[in-house]
Amino acid sequence: MASIYDVAKAAGVSPSTVSFVLNGKGEKMRIAKKTIDNIRKAASTLGYIPNVAARKLTSKTALISSPEVAVLWSPYQHFSFLNNFIDKAQALISKGELPEMRFSVIPFEEGALSKYSSVFFNTGYNGIIVPPISAEDLAFLNNLNISTPLILLYGNSDKHSVIKVDNLKAGKLAAEVFCEKGMNSVVMITEKRSNIHTNIASRKNSFSAACEEKGISVIEIEIPENLNLNLKNILNPDVGKWCSDKILELGSRPKGIFVQNDLIAYNLINALKDSGFDIPVDMEVIAYGSAMIAEISSPTITTIDHDYEQINSEALKMMAELLVDSMSGPRTKIIDTKVVFRNSCPEM
User: Fold this and answer.
1) CB 308 within 8 A of CB 291
2) Side by side, which strands form the sheet with 68-73?
3) Fewest CB atoms within 10 Å of the CB: 14, 197, 218, 268?
4) Residues 212, 201: contact at Cβ < 8 Å?
């Protein structure tokens, strides 16, 4: 692995000058732009990665060369995400498609990311990966001035690198399916949360706008925040029963239901079946989510699907690139989404 001295030699400058530039202090130290560009180019060519792990060790301890990446984690994240992320990292590393990395999982409280600012300014991390976050958390991130590569999953940012799903398309696709089936009134089930994820809000607004454009009225049912807080495991059937009861209270029952969470959709379908409804004969259900829970449901669930594995793979590969070339600016990768028809809402 290239050292700071190798970069200095290649750029024809002193190691201290390289250190200033790679730590984002080049302009402050009045280093010429041409010199800054030469140093960054040399670092990128040589594949230099700051060995921040070494800073945590004493001089008598052997250096650890693998970069360390912090992965933030909230209990509200989809239960399958973290397992899939680690599995994908191990697979890519074992195949030689990803350099060796170490990962630290950092639990955090959604809506209060600012309380964990030490993570972002801790010199012990070479990179940071952040899962879906609230608007408040996103505002905090967008005000950060850090040189550590940061990748935001499922969000929007002009300041940091992003891997995201096309949420506007996702909401529109669900509306188009209901329109093609001739429905004029549908239900959308969301979670009422003070710190709603920005991607959920985008998908929700897109679905409502597309339905309005097609003349479909939307009845929104929001799961109370206190119910979610009391049920950390959202697979608890009480969530589905609550949603089912709200639908049954409606004067005119909808033919179509769009659920913003595949786990909630799983519980809802079971609750509707317990109430004597036949899915999809009496009602058709579409969920936003992935294949795993959708395929074990009975009936199986039609989803507006995105590929977890692709998202995690792209995030890992992007982080590897940023570790080598962190000065190239933020990058964006948009993951496509599609309708995967299953039994809860069959294809026409």
Assistant:
1) no
2) 102-107, 68-73, 127-130, 150-153, 161-165, 332-335
3) 14
4) no
The bridge status of strand 338-340 relative to strand 302-305 is antiparallel
- In tens, the pLDDT along 211-235 reads 999 999 999 999 887 765 444 445 6
Please give the full DSSP string across 10-31, using - where no structure is assigned: HHTS-HHHHHHHHTT-TTTTT-
Q: How many helices (H) and strands (E) does the chain have?
A: 14, 12
Residue 189 tokens read as 């089930």
Q: How far apart, in whole angstroms, are the C-alpha atoms of residue 4 and residue 185?
A: 63
Amino acid code (one letter) for 41:
K
Distances (CA, A) of 255 to 180, 188, 219, 339, 347: 13, 12, 12, 18, 15
The DSSP output letter for 62 is: P
| 148-188: pLDDT as tens digits | 889 998 777 888 999 988 889 999 999 999 999 999 999 99
CB-CB neighbours of 192 under 10 Å: 14
Token pair 């952040």 in the structure block, residue: 130
Q: Report the C-alpha gap between 166 and 194 in whole angstroms.
A: 23
DSSP structural state of residue 114 = G
Q: Which residue has the tokens 């039609």?
A: 302
Query: Token pair of 113, please?
Result: 């990311």
**Amino acid at the residue 156:** N
Q: Which of 133, 167, 127 is nearest to 151 (CA)?
A: 127
* β-strand partners of 289: 305
- Whether pTM > 0.85 for this model: the answer is no
